[in-house]
Amino acid sequence: YAGDPIFDLAAAMSTYPDGRRESFKMNGEVQYSLVPAYTDDGGHLNPVGRTYAAAALVQSIAEALRSAR
Asked: How many CA atoms lie within 13 A of 14 on its CB side?
């Protein structure tokens, strides 16, 4: 769906504020994972993670609106 205005929550959850991605290698392939600072239990977003994901969603909506002009 490249080019479609689809929000990728998994990408937001694996991206640090500086743009780096949390990742690991499995079977020689890079896999992205949840940023540790965004979770308290390893699987669900904590308040920091929710805030970051919400900001990424708002940014995604703004970009989609700009490109729709």
From this structure: 12
